[in-house]
């Protein structure tokens, strides 16, 4: 699904990613943890194709395509979803209208028929039900005045509607309360399936109590320095990141 090899990337003239290797198989849920400033969000932004992030080495294969050669919109059309891709507040734009445009743009790019208003409404209702959400956010302007929890709910709903092959959720900067964490975790669990892989970036071990990732990775200083199962997250909770950095130094 995703194969990242030797990825190096700069922000400005500073190298942030320093040779990152990372592989995600179909249907797998991976958690990326790591100290603040280690490059987690940079990695997510590079995958999304965001401006200002310059790749200097390495390769990223996504579902058989050279991801780095694609425009951000093309990446989305191929089934890559980044939660923070749509966090912008759009005061004048109705949330339902916005989602319908996004869904239809992706369908069109895939060669699927665009959904009319009735079919779209039906699909929305079905997905709301799967996620146990109500429709209160849909009539409001996109993210405008949304609380942290509402933004999360909307993000998860966007993911459900866009049906990505690979979803990346960057949860680091948001100071989420326990309810918001539950929304994210329940959403991830409800949308987990054999055709959909997910990468959850977080420094909240608590989130992983609910999600149960297949693999856990530690990113530090622009590289994945340790990978393991969900027990790695527990070990990090207990010992912090220092013990890995220490072990790395000894091994070097
Ligand atoms: P994390 O998400 O792991 O906390 P980031 O990827 O946000 O880490 O940041 C990694 C490093 O890149 C930090 O040193 C940060 O200061 C720097 N950085 C990130 N984005 C920018 C930017 N837009 N301009 C300058 N430096 C940045
Ligand atoms: Mg950070
Ligand atoms: Mg971050």
How does the SSE layout of this entry go?
Elements: E1 2-11, E2 14-24, E3 29-33, H1 40-48, E4 53-62, E5 65-66, H2 72-77, E6 80-82, E7 90-94, H3 95-110, H4 117-130, E8 141-142, H5 148-162, E9 166-170, H6 178-191, E10 197-201, H7 205-211, E11 215-220, E12 223-228, H8 231-239, H9 242-251
Helix pairs in contact: 5-6, 6-7
Residues 11-12, 16, 34, 36-42, 52, 172 line the site of adenosine-5'-diphosphate (ADP).
What are the salient characteristics of this protein?
252 residues; alpha/beta; six-stranded mixed beta sheet; four-stranded antiparallel beta sheet; 9 helices; binds adenosine-5'-diphosphate; binds magnesium ion; P-loop_NTPase
Structure explained in plain terms:
- The chain has a six-stranded mixed sheet with strand order 6-9-10-3-11-12, with helices on both faces. Strands 2-1-4-5 form a four-stranded antiparallel sheet.
- Strand 11 and strand 12 (223-228) form a beta hairpin.
- The protein is of the alpha/beta class and 252 residues long.
- It is 40% helix and 28% strand.
- It starts with a strand and ends with a helix.
- The mean pLDDT is 89.
- The protein has helices at residues 40-48, 72-77, 95-110, 117-130, 148-162, 178-191, 205-211, 231-239, 242-251; strands at residues 2-11, 14-24, 29-33, 53-62, 65-66, 80-82, 90-94, 141-142, 166-170, 197-201, 215-220, 223-228.
- InterPro entries: AAA+_ATPase, ABC_transporter-like_ATP-bd, FeS-cluster_ATPase_SufC, P-loop_NTPase.
- Belongs to the ABC transporter superfamily. Ycf16 family.
């Amino acid at each position: 699904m995703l194969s990242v090899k030797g990825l190096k990337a700069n922000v400005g003239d500073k190298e942030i990613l320093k040779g990152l290797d990372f592989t995600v198989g179909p249907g797998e849920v991976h958690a990326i943890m790591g100290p603040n400033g280690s490059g987690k969000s940079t990695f997510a932004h590079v995958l999304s194709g965001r401006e200002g992030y310059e790749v200097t080495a390495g390769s990223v294969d996504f579902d058989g395509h050279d991801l780095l050669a694609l425009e951000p919109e093309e990446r989305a059309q191929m089934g890559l979803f980044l939660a923070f891709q749509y966090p912008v507040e759009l005061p004048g734009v109705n949330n339902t209208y916005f989602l319908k445009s996004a869904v239809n743009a992706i369908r069109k790019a895939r060669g699927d028929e665009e959904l009319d208003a009735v079919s779209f409404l039906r699909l929305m209702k079905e997905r709301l039900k799967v996620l146990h959400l109500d429709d209160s956010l849909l009539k409001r302007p996109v993210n405008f005045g949304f609380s942290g929890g509402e933004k999360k709910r909307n993000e998860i709903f966007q993911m459900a509607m866009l049906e990505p092959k690979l979803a990346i959720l960057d949860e680091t900067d948001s100071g989420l309360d326990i309810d918001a964490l539950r929304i994210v975790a329940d959403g991830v669990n409800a949308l987990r399936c054999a055709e959909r892989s997910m990468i959850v970036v977080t420094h909240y071990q608590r989130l992983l109590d609910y999600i149960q990732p297949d693999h856990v990775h530690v990113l530090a200083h622009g590289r994945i320095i340790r990978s393991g199962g969900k027990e790695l997250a527990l070990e990090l909770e207990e010992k912090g990141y220092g013990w890995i950095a220490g072990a790395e130094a000894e091994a070097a």
